[in-house]
Amino acid sequence: MITMVQTSPDGPPHRRQSQILVPIDTPGVTIDHPMQVFGDDDAPHGHMHITFKDARVPAANLLLGEGRGFEISQLRLGPGRIHHCMRSIGAAERAIELMCRRGLHREAFGKTISHLGKNMEVIARARIEIEAMRLMVLRAAKAMDTMGNAEARVWISAVKAMVPEKVCQIIDAAIQIHGATGVSQWTPLAAMYTQQRTLRLADGPDEVHHFVVARFELNRYQDGPGDIPMTSHTGPVFAGP
């Protein structure tokens, strides 16, 4: 397994971590138990609670070099975040399909559920948000292709902050239209919600990505006067391809 450890605690923040190959049968490595997510067993696809005690491996097991663990992670985090968002949009499409089918074929108080209360607006907003997310992800992906991961990072953070949160809301709306069935084993919605809510923490929580976008935006006006409408600026522009 690939293990991320701190090897240079006094180095620059981005050079403190290293990645090391550690065979699972290494003496001192103990797999304690699988972790649970929302109270449910996530094995065998999830994460394990692992204890390392005096575990030693050859220096040759160090990947790329000491202090380059963060660099290795960044190589996959950009594409990985885009991939998460793509799959999330697929989940949103599934949720709106289930929402509409339930709404059209279930009745209450003499009407189909889709025509009760504000459910028409709920469905409309879900479709609008799905298409907005799709366009944002396409633009972020194009930014990666044409500008590279580093220059496209603000776009990547924008979609990573936006998409899982919005998809959670769409799945939640689908659950609400299903009633108690929505949280049962009879639909995939409960599992979908759990996955999407977890994704708001994976590869950086929402707050980290909001910080990246806000910092980039504030830098545009850093050197200008305050409280005066600006006609130009010298800072970097939140622009894409």
Q: Describe it for me?
A:
The protein has 241 residues and is of the alpha+beta class. The chain folds into two domains: 2-61, Butyryl-CoA Dehydrogenase, subunit A, domain 2; 77-219, Butyryl-CoA Dehydrogenase, subunit A, domain 3, CATH 1.20.140. 49% of the residues lie in helices and 12% in strands. The chain contains five helices and eight strands. It has helices spanning 69-105, 119-147, 153-178, 189-199, 206-219, and strands spanning 2-6, 17-21, 29-34, 36-37, 40-41, 48-52, 107-108, 111-112. The strands form four sheets. A two-stranded antiparallel ribbon has the order 1-2.
Mind sketching the topology for me?
Blueprint: E1 2-6, E2 17-21, E3 29-34, E4 36-37, E5 40-41, E6 48-52, H1 69-105, E7 107-108, E8 111-112, H2 119-147, H3 153-178, H4 189-199, H5 206-219
In angstroms, what is the radius of gyration? 23 Å
Number of distinct helices: 5
**Do you know the CATH architecture of the largest domain?**
Up-down Bundle
Principal-axes shape call: flat
Helix content: 40-55%
CATH class wording of the largest domain: Mainly Alpha
Mean pLDDT: 90
Number of individual domains? 2
Task: Describe the structure in brief.
It is built from 5 helices and 8 strands, in the order ββββββαββαααα.
